[in-house]
Amino acid sequence: MKRNVIIAQGGGPTAVINQSLVGAVLEARGYDSVDRVYGALHGIRGLVDEDFVDLTRETHGNLERVAATPSSALGSTRDKPDADYCKAMFKTLAAHNAGTFLYIGGNDSSDTVRIVAEEAKAAGYDLTAVHIPKTVDNDLMENDHTPGYGSAARFVTQAFTGLNLDNRALKGVYIAVLMGRHAGFLTAASSLARKHEDDGPHVICLPERDFDMDGVLARIKETHDRIGRCIVAVSEGIHDRSGEPIAASLMQSVERDAHGNISLSGTGALGDLLAQEVKAKLGIGRVRADTFGYMQRAFAGAVSDVDAREARDVGEVAARAAIRDGRTASVTIERIGNYAVQYDLVPLEKIAAKTRVMPDPYIAADGLDVTRDFLDYARPLIGSAVPEAARLFENNPVEKQLSR
Amino acid sequence: MKRNVIIAQGGGPTAVINQSLVGAVLEARGYDSVDRVYGALHGIRGLVDEDFVDLTRETHGNLERVAATPSSALGSTRDKPDADYCKAMFKTLAAHNAGTFLYIGGNDSSDTVRIVAEEAKAAGYDLTAVHIPKTVDNDLMENDHTPGYGSAARFVTQAFTGLNLDNRALKGVYIAVLMGRHAGFLTAASSLARKHEDDGPHVICLPERDFDMDGVLARIKETHDRIGRCIVAVSEGIHDRSGEPIAASLMQSVERDAHGNISLSGTGALGDLLAQEVKAKLGIGRVRADTFGYMQRAFAGAVSDVDAREARDVGEVAARAAIRDGRTASVTIERIGNYAVQYDLVPLEKIAAKTRVMPDPYIAADGLDVTRDFLDYARPLIGSAVPEAARLFENNPVEKQLSR
To answer: pTM above the 0.95 mark?
Structure first.
């Protein structure tokens, strides 16, 4: 008997999450055992609310256009299912004859798939469930990297390429706050913008290390004294020795999602605090702070071609694993050679609700920079034809005629 | 006797300001009457400090690469010259046999050219001075638009294309603060990202109108009630009825440049204030605010091809006017047809230190949106091949099987 496939998207959008959607939909539509491919709106919320669109009716052309469009075309959610939530889902799945559930998301979404798969087993509901990886944070276990990261890292690289030159033109201290709650991969990507010896970022503050204001101020002062300017890239998740995020201490009220995550984005408070500290403690006049915010995960037009094709692939691999092989698992990306990848499947428990952070060899000994290992790791992920900065030749100064 | 040409860049960088530099340099290098073309570092500051690089020695290839690189390759300044400052400049100019001064900048930089030209005349120094327009604010008098605006507007358009879909996926209220002290052109460009009926921005707050918090909140509530989300684009320069910028009232200390401008960028305070108001007064849970900051003027890789070619042209026109025709003036852009431009020269006094704001026909009657006239005006400026958002077809909902 033919059964239907349900696909949905969870967590924060990325620039290539629709590539995975389309990879899965096109693969799923090709099986005789599949009747319809439904998209659930706003993640698992759509499964409870019975809110589906029929992706079997989409044209190839429109699917390709959607694949090239950032953010989650089906909408998203941060809901976390419990037993009752799952019971309601299975009622919907049964009413729509669904035997396959594909969920595109990060570590919280993989936990959702794990819960749904376990509850289905307990309830005796025949369901194959596969998690398709995505996250700009690049913090999934068992993966060399995750779809969405390469494009966000490319955006950060392109932004810092310009910001470095903006700061070089007008001098002073520039602080940028980037996404990354526990993992500093995206903040670290700012280093890919460096070309000349004195290019920024000159200081990189990662959540993998305790934030030490005095150490950071000393590094800013040293850099500013030396070249008259300094660029600082800071993860939103930087925290003190107790583990308390600096950003959270600035909030009037802390906002948590169903998975227990504190919302750190969508405010400029952390950047403003750091700028005030630099002004007050170092007496530097021109200090500016920006918070990259939601642009970095959903910008239209800074997509990594490598990221896009891998995002497409993991969607296809997931649909094949579920529909042809009946596997309940998570799709992973393994790096082979320099640079190539292959895909694999791992048990959901190995990914679910776990967080990978930057390995020590990627972080400089002083904790305020990345290493060449990180650059080698990240460079291929941001794709081809990355805009490059050029300078005027520096060996053509005009001899001074006046003595001042 | 051959004399030298000095070129410099003032004010805030743009993504195409080096196109103007290279247009002027290549043109200037072609004249028999010109010996050397020097670049002054950090604007007029370099003329006082005798800090020059010899642009006659640059290769064509490197100049083209620099032209395609954002931000001011020669560095910039916000210095405003007085009589003594000019006296020091003329000493340097004389020592380096300079007869032509080309300055790329906005309204403050055009005022600098006016001052320098007048002081040169008073001091009997033989100098031809031409102002080359640039500003992401698009606020120069006598110009249909200014180089730098098209690329910044393109960045804003691409950002909002993604942000609109990000907000559509996760709902709630999203507030973005954009550059624009007195003129709302750049904030208004967010409207170019709209494609579908319900696309944001849904509210646009411009400095051309007094900011009315209650009116804005009412519009946000109406939009959020209707579609479950709302995107607000806000100029950093919004002000109350007294003309006091809301952002300035949030600052611990107000920072002014030599031209008397308050620094409004480089802080997230305005966005955070607005987000707090929306949370407190409307009781909406998910409210996020981003401040676009310096990315919007110097991002590497979102350049408008139209903007780039016009920036190149005005540099060339300026060098020709100064060197061949001995004109002291400002270069302007006039729109002819739909869409083409031609260039002209106007007296510096017509541009210097003056500000053009958005004309009334570009602003909706309620003051919270732009008109079709604005869209028609701005659309050609952001160039070709702007990334476009696609949606899944909306006429394929799956019939509900359960009655809840």
So the answer is: yes
